[in-house]
């Protein structure tokens, strides 16, 4: 009956209007509701603990207003804290002063990197940029082909190694670091102003793979390193995000598969443990299923 956190807190506090300060017992009842809502949204347990402690501290000092139900006041606090952790304002891509801007994608296999590369390139093209996709996922047999298909759909060229074909790329064949470097050089010569580097992922965190991603980062010195994470990952979000943060020191997060049932708790977990902003949301398999991430909308989704 009272599905959203807002409804539940309003109900919890319906007799408290104009009561003065909230007591510890009142606040504990609130914190229980908030904890339940966040766990339902699959926010990591450690993040829930830290978050509720912060809300409790603010709620304890709260002067209950005559005008607002205390539940509404607490919801406002929860909302402000959520939006703050999720990055406040939507963060835009940082463009290089001297093009090309280099954007590197990293994340587990299946997170949606290659799909995102196509979407991001199309979106950037729509904004008047001239992007180049660079295929550095040489781990998965079909990844280069998949990027080429996405590039074709987006109308964006793909720089990829061609095994056995004699070209200036031949030396790059098989070595993702060399492909990345050659791709950026290609963009510089042919005047593409944004380079999107797709990298390999594994099903689990893997030291060799992380080293490869880190080597690519060192080789092309990206302006943005976007960590791509499936919103359905649930409680594994924290470990995965920490591993990638240590491995490639990403600058922003892209949350994928938000068209599914996931309430988006992963966004809060990742932003909370890494302090990095979520920048984009991927909402389907199509090239246009992509949007800027809005912290306030995600806060509502988590609390709903
Ligand atoms: P990668 O291994 O990280 O490059 O992942 P892919 O880009 O190959 O994506 C893995 C699968 O997830 C593919 O079947 C994609 O079509 C699908 N996918 C990617 N992004 C989304 C999304 O936002 N929503 C849905 N429903 N599927 C997605």
Automatic annotation (TrEMBL):
Hydrolase is among the record's keywords: yes
Enzyme class: hydrolase
Protein species of origin: Arthrobacter flavus
Function summary: Involved in targeting and insertion of nascent membrane proteins into the cytoplasmic membrane. Binds to the hydrophobic signal sequence of the ribosome-nascent chain (RNC) as it emerges from the ribosomes. The SRP-RNC complex is then targeted to the cytoplasmic membrane where it interacts with the SRP receptor FtsY.
Positions bound to GTP: 107-114, 198-202, 256-259
Protein name as catalogued: Signal recognition particle protein
Leader sequence residues: none
Portion held of the full protein: 1 to 304 of 525
Keyword field: Cytoplasm, GTP-binding, Hydrolase, Nucleotide-binding, Ribonucleoprotein, RNA-binding, Signal recognition particle
Record-annotated SRP54-type proteins GTP-binding domain positions: 277-290
């Amino acid at each position: 009956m009272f599905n959203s956190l807002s409804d539940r807190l309003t109900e919890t506090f319906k007799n408290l209007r104009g009561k003065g300060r909230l007591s510890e017992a009142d606040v504990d009842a609130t914190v229980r509701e908030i904890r339940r809502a966040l766990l339902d949204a699959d926010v990591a347990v450690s993040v829930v603990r830290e978050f509720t402690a912060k809300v409790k501290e603010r709620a304890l000092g709260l002067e209950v207003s005559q005008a607002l139900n205390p539940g509404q006041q607490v919801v406002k606090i929860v909302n402000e804290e959520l939006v703050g952790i999720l990055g406040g304002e939507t963060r835009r891509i940082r463009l290089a002063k001297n093009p090309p801007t280099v954007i590197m994608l990293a994340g587990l296999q299946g997170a949606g990197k290659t799909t995102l590369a196509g979407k991001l390139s199309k979106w950037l093209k729509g904004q008047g940029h001239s992007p180049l996709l660079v295929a550095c996922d040489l781990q998965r047999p079909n990844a280069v082909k998949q990027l080429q298909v996405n590039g074709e759909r987006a109308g964006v060229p793909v720089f990829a190694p061609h095994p056995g074909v004699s070209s200036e790329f031949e030396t790059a064949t098989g070595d993702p670091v060399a492909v990345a470097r050659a791709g950026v050089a290609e963009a510089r010569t042919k005047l593409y102003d944004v380079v999107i580097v797709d990298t390999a992922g594994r099903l689990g965190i893997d030291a060799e793979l992380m080293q490869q991603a880190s080597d690519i980062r060192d080789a092309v010195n990206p302006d943005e390193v976007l960590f791509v994470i499936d919103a359905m990952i649930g409680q594994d979000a924290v470990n995965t995000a920490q591993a990638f943060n240590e491995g490639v020191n990403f600058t922003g997060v892209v949350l994928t598969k938000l068209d599914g049932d996931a309430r988006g708790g992963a966004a809060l977990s990742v932003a909370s443990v890494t302090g990095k902003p979520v920048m984009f949301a991927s909402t389907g398999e199509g090239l246009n299923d992509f949007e800027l991430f809005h912290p306030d909308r995600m806060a509502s989704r988590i609390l709903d």
